[in-house]
Design a protein that fits this description.
Layout lengths: L18 H33 L17 E4 L9 H18 L2 E3 L16 H12 L5 E5 L3 E3 L6 H4 L3 H7 L26 E6 L2 E10 L2 H10 L2 H4 L6 H12 L1 H4 L2 E3 L2 H4 L17 E3 L12 H17 L2
Parallel strand pairs: 1-2, 1-3, 5-7
Antiparallel strand pairs: 3-6, 4-8, 5-6
Amino acid sequence: MHFAYPPRKDSAPPRFVPRSTQFSTLRRRRLKVVAIIGLAIITFLYLISRGSSGQGPPREHVPSGKPPAVIVTVLDESDFRRPYLETVKENRRQYAERHGYAVMFPKIGEYDLKGSPFSWTKVVAMRDAMTKFPDAKFIWFLDQDYFIMNAQATIEEDVMKPTRLESLMIKDHPVVPPDSIIKTFAHLKGQDIDFVLTQDVEGLSVNSFVIRNGEWARFFLEVWFDPIYRTYNFQKAETHALEHIVQWHPTILSRLALIPQNVINAGSTSEKGAQYQPGDMVVRLSNCAKASNTKPCETELEKFTQLWRTAFSGS
């Protein structure tokens, strides 16, 4: 069992804590209590809804694998140049056609985020993909500054296959580096995992991650998008909300696997961790700038464009 904070190891009286710090600590504690209560309510309603239709226990829909996976990329047309975004679409479509995948390109502003920052669009888009493709086995979110480089690698075989996951899973490791006392579970097997992502030098990365389609995934996305987390002033919005969730809710952590960054999250430089090497599945344009800047994404993309087009045109 993990504890959020280690017990006090000495009997010395506590040091004086400024009033503002006390209020900040009290606020965090209240958030944790409210979050736990909120998760309990969502879980209860989830269980009730499953048992309220028809006679006998409900049968969970098992995705047939048609398509095997859906790639979701949210496009920001206000901040990124149109030629660049068209190249992003071309990259996804060529890869998807090769493997029989579906693709979705929702746009910033397409969903009602209830006043939350636009970065939350990824969470709603993933839920939308599950609704539109109920028989897809996996949903892969891939941000718009990533390009798929390996035409042969697939999500179902090279990432989510249980035996493959067994070789990739980083166990008993701090969820939020470098020193979180909450760690990934050491006893989990590949078949236990429904949510796969990586870490970079800043913590959990929500720019490239995979979810196994199913009832648990719906539950998880509803928890993640809960108003409790969207309205709390996290510095990095949905990223820090996720870090909070996986550390405080074993229901989520027990289905999560961290894998090496280079599998689905290598960068064009080593600035944020693992640097792209030939054969890696994707590359992230580490210095990709928005359209208003002098160094657009196309500049950094130049050295990779011919590589992935050549790879995709091969047999």
